[in-house]
Amino acid sequence: MKKTTISLINADIGSFPGHSRIHPVLLETAYKILKTAEGQDIIDSFVTHCGDNLELIMTHNKGVNNAKIHGLAWDVFKNCTDEARKKKLYGVDKHIKNFSSTPDNIRGMGPGVAEMDFEERKSDPVLCFMSDKTEPGACNYYLYKIFADPFNTSGLILDKKMRKGFTFEVLDVKENKTIEVATPEQSYRLLTLISAPSRYVVKSVFLPLDDEEKLIAASISVPSLSHPQKMGATNRTRAETKDEPVMIVRAQNSLPAVGEILEPFANPIIVAGWMRGSHYGPFMPVGLCDANCTRFDGPPRVICMGFQVAESKLIGPVDMFDDPAFDHVRQRCNELADILRVHGPFIPHRRPFEDMNDDTAKEVWDELKIGK
């Protein structure tokens, strides 16, 4: 029996005005290319956006990290970039700088990639989360709540299979190594790591089964790392990929229910990103109609498209956050945005220099020395 593979790949290849949203022509271009590929390299597809990120959801039977699938996504981004240049959209070539050749694997080339393959169950609900104006580790909090917190997920107590706990694969961004942490036995150790989301990023979550097998539950895009670069008085590793994470989460049948997966988003948390990737702000769950970043190029936001997967076909989507049940958290996010914006360039609104994407402090120090 062939496994179903879901590939969720996104890229910022030009937007309007400024960093606000994707132009409709780019969505149309991507849609046509993927529809043409259906029945050949892919089985089904869905195109959408979150803020200024173009989001591609594809199903196929080729497994993860497949050269043809990654090449197809690359072709979409290349053609959309050509359209973006014609319209002089903002940020063209910001995250993808070189289309001279098609890579076998586009991880680390600019796009964000979340993929998983699995044997379909009797029923397979799948939620695809897409974000804008935040960092890769922004999903850490939610993944812990979904897969390790019984106060959020009652199935961890009530479902016999889930009582075994889930295993988290965590990427250490600084050391570029993956760590496996099992819950509930190592829950405190897991929290010690992922509570620092700028360094430790959850990349996948599994349910251990008998005979050392495991069931994939979640897959998250993570940064691809470069060599350490000089950052003032310290050395650290920088991510080469764009920040905004995408995430695929499977639901039901020995995994958390759809409602348990969505529940953590009912409370606001503060994430890094927002304007110039240099500020902290509330992570706002919104429906697709509100997935446009405006105020101070934000605030950071996340959408969720829900599907049933049947014979590798995407049945849906359902816009999961387009629901008045999430109005209250959106209001609280706006209130938190007001509080943080008052701080302007001061911490805690601005990120510490060592966590920012450019070496602003060192430049100022050098300028002051020259001034002397």
What is the share of helical residues?
Answer: 10-25%
Mean pLDDT: 92
Q: Secondary-structure element order, as H and E? A: EHEEHEEHHEEHEEEEEHEEEEEHH
Specify the oligomeric state.
Answer: single chain
Give the amount of beta strand, in percent: 25-35%
Domain count, please report it.
Answer: 2
Low-confidence regions: 226-241
Instruction: Give the distance, in angstroms, between the N- and C-terminal Cα atoms.
Output: 72 Å
Biggest pleated-sheet summary? 9 strands, mixed
Please explain how this structure is put together.
With 372 residues, the chain is of the alpha+beta class. It folds into two domains: 1-118, 2-Layer Sandwich (Alpha-Beta Plaits); 120-361, no CATH class. The chain is built from eight helices and 17 strands. It has helices spanning 24-37, 67-86, 140-148, 155-158, 187-194, 258-262, 327-341, 360-371; strands at 4-11, 44-50, 53-60, 112-118, 125-132, 167-172, 177-182, 200-208, 214-220, 225-231, 234-239, 246-250, 270-273, 279-282, 284-285, 301-310, 313-319. The strands form four sheets. Strands 5, 6, 7, 8, 9, 12, 15, 16 and 17 form a nine-stranded mixed beta sheet that branches. Strand 6 (167-172) and strand 7 form a beta hairpin. The N and C termini lie far apart (72 Å). Residues 226-241 have low confidence and may be disordered.
